[in-house]
Amino acid sequence: MGRRLRLLLVGLLAGLITVGATGCAGGTGVEEDGSANGDAAKVEQVAGSDFPKITLSDEAAERLGVATDPVQMQASGTIQQPAIPYQAVVYDANGQAFTYVSSEPHVYSRVPLTVDDVQGDMAVLATGPAVGTSVVTTGAAELWGAETGVGAED
User: Fold this and answer.
1) Which residues contact 63 (CB under 8 A, 6 or more apart)?
2) DSSP per residue over 42-111, as a string?
3) CA angle 6, 129, 127 (to 5 degrees)
4) I want to staple 145 with a disulfide (CB 3.0 to 4.6 A). Which of 71, 84, 104, 150 is the partner?
5) What's the pTM?
6) Is residue 154 part of a domain?
7) Do 78 and 93 touch, CB atoms closer than 8 A?
8) Residue 153 belongs to some domain of the structure
């Protein structure tokens, strides 16, 4: 129960930080229809995927300080499992965990995952991106805001 409450609180805090950060900064630069406003972020639907692709301008990526780390293997008991920094895990309003991955510079997409365990500052994954995949460790809350339109001007 304690871990679930902690995970829920982290998710809620990430949402609040997103609202505060994007609201104070004048929005994410994304219109309600997903088109870029000022070319800061472009949100595009991807054929065959439930999740859009987010492309940040060089300036937006620098301003947000987006950073990534690769998925790595970590010992969990007697087995090795994929793991990512816990700060790369984001939770939606329903408690579903996900992370943002980057396949090319300044291009990000959301990938659902299942956290099996939290060991220190690492989230050990039951499901998620493949080992070696770059996951966003700084700036994920802002990507979530861009994707969902949180902080976008009406």
Assistant:
1) none
2) EEE--TT-SS-EEEE-HHHHHHHT-EEEE-EEEEETTEEEEEEEGGG-EE-TT--EEEEEEEETTEEEEE
3) 60
4) 150
5) 0.74
6) no
7) no
8) no
